[in-house]
Specification:
This protein is an all-alpha fold. The protein is built from four helices and no strands.
């Protein structure tokens, strides 16, 4: 779960910067709270999947379950 959170945090932060948005801008435009965005980008361990989905939807992204790579 930690790797997933790190990947999501990295993706959201990169998308936010690509779109030239501050955390405050993203909070207003996506309808997700500023504290949630800050916590997400810092890799905090507790995430509400509905909020993650809402945030990713703003960028036209979605979460997808995929099988782990076989070593």
């Amino acid at each position: 779960l930690f790797y997933m959170q790190t990947d999501i945090a990295t993706t959201v932060k990169a998308l936010r910067k690509t779109y030239g948005l501050t955390q405050e801008d993203l909070a207003m435009k996506s309808g997700v709270g500023l504290c949630f965005i800050r916590s997400l980008e810092q890799g905090k361990r507790t995430l509400r999947m509905d909020k993650v989905t809402q945030l990713l939807d703003y960028f036209n992204y979605s979460l997808t379950a995929v099988p782990n790579a076989v070593n």
